[in-house]
Amino acid sequence: MERTGPPARFSGLLAAFSAALLVAGGLAASAPAAAAADADLARNGGFEAGLDGWSCTGGGGAVVSTPVHGGTSALKATPAGSDNAQCSQTVTVKPDSTYTLSAWVQGSYVYLGASGTGTTDVSTWTPSATGWQQLTTTFRTGAATTSVTIYTHGWYGTPAYYADDLSLTGPGGDPVALPATPTGLKAAATTSSSVALSWTGTTGATGYNVYRGGTKVLSVTGTSATVSGLAASTAYSFQVAATNSAGESAKTAAVTATTTAGGGGGGDGAGLPAHALVGYLHSSFANGSGYTRMADVPDSWDVIDLAFGEPTSVTSGDIRFSLCPVTECPNVESAAEFKAAIKAKQAAGKKVLISIGGQNGQVQLSTTAARDAFVSSVSKIIDEYGLDGLDIDFEGHSLSLNTGDTDFRNPTTPVIVNLISAVKTLKAKYGDTFVLTMAPETFFVQLGYQYYGSGPWGGQDPRAGAYLPVIHALRDDLTLLHVQDYNSGSIMGLDNQYHSMGGADFHIAMTDMLLIGFPVAGDTTKVFPALRPDQVSIGLPASTQAGNGYTSPAEVTKALNCLTKKADCGSYATHGTWPGLRGLMTWSINWDRFNNGEFSKNFDAYFGG
């Protein structure tokens, strides 16, 4: 996702013309002088009070004493990875009024702008300012606009930029009062995993925060919301508060609602132990870890994923599975021995699934014909080997979002819609005991906190967050989600800091996101709801040879302690404690045996296996 140049919308003649004006005149745009009576509405625009009044993304903002344009302090903000180091504040303004926004900046591709104007949002930029250069722009507020957001930011992959003496001049807005507390909160409907809430709105509110057990779980603009990811037959308390630019109202009195009894979907009827160990078995190929026969899989493993079922072509949907050839795996068992060993594992309470995809098995269900072929061929594999269910391990370019597909709750991209439909058909065919697991990479899930698909203007990687609509649509059928916390770049957590794989901190931050939910692409009206703890396992490599991001047993224990006991949490503060966290997944059973069982032994020692 790293970008090294300005966005496409500033390309061509417009960019060249703008750049010429910048160089020639020292200004990004000319603007009429503010009236003498106009006030500077920006708070702490000279950064003399640190970052007071400012919010900077990615933790990249800091106040420095040199270089400065005026006074003794200036802003230094450093883009990192997929973050452009935007620093912003919201300012109260008057409707139908003209404002002048100005700042002094240094650096490459430094931007200054205003959003939420109610008319045309504005921004201006400089491609290169080796010394202090002033950026200026003007805008007019809409008929109902009472606040705007002003900001400055750099660009992806560029060095730190500096900003100082930022001002917004124009008529000051009337003070905004806190909205009144909403009334009439009630539970309109319940299912085994969700509660629908409604309430009466209040004058002056621009949005509403929904709380479950005192923790904010949703932010919406309307007067209803559905809280998902709940456990069956469980009582929950809910409150709602109204919000606007002045802050949040008092919360309503709590309303209690109890979810209905579950029908076995979503993992409760899968027959797994309270804490389960999941591993992939290299069944169709060999590598440096060696081939392991099904009968030789140690008893520690509760879920065994057969790696892999792969398509006859990327878009066929026709999935095939066969045992490793004798020429590649001299100790491979016969098909009859393999099937008998599966039955023995199942008799001992283990679950055996077919895993579809993997690194080399790209699957794109772009047509309904491919969807139907997927259902038919996967069913054939499940029936032939007597399997318990399906693991979806779509990687690479299997899932991506079409431009304009921006709401994970209502996907329109065929490869997403057809996959959801296919899995629902399989679930309906095999019933409540069908085990459904998924093993996406962080790029397809947690990265969705920052980016979703190609973005509102296009240009982003369309795979960003592309698993979210699949997980969301199937959450009531989902047994386990075990995101691969390995082979990953740094990912931003809910603390708006980047976390890197290989230590407890990464697993804590990534898992916390799944268990508390998060706004997709930062949009608080599109919050991906939390999953139940029993639906979540942490995915790790079993050894240094198995993948990048190997985590030592001591660090794995720290992560489990933090998530289940609120101990050993280090620098990341979780948003809850989840003793019901289902467990761990690893790539792979073979690599764990190669590594003398280090991973499974640590799991057994922790959970008493």
Describe the biggest sheet? 9 strands, mixed
Q: What is the count of helical runs?
A: 9
Content of β-strand: 25-35%
Mean pLDDT over the full residue set: 88
Described by the principal axes of the CA atoms, the overall outline is: globular
Question: What would you report as the Rg, rounded to the nearest angstrom?
Answer: 27 Å
Proportion of helical residues? 10-25%
Low-confidence runs of at least 5 consecutive residues: 1-36, 263-269
Number of strands: 32
The structure class reads: alpha+beta
The rounded distance between the terminal residues' Cα atoms is: 41 Å
Pfam family, one: fn3
EC number: 3.2.1.14
Keywords: Carbohydrate metabolism, Glycosidase, Hydrolase, Polysaccharide degradation, Signal
Family: Belongs to the glycosyl hydrolase 18 family. Chitinase class II subfamily.
Tell me about this structure.
By secondary structure, the chain is an alpha+beta fold. It has 9 helices and 32 strands. Strands 20, 21, 22, 23, 24, 25, 26, 31 and 32 form a 9-stranded mixed sheet that branches. Strands 1, 3, 4, 6, 9 and 11 form a 6-stranded antiparallel sheet that branches. Strand 27 (491-492) and strand 28 (498-499) form a beta hairpin. Helix 3 runs parallel beside helix 4 and helix 6 (504-516) runs parallel beside helix 7.
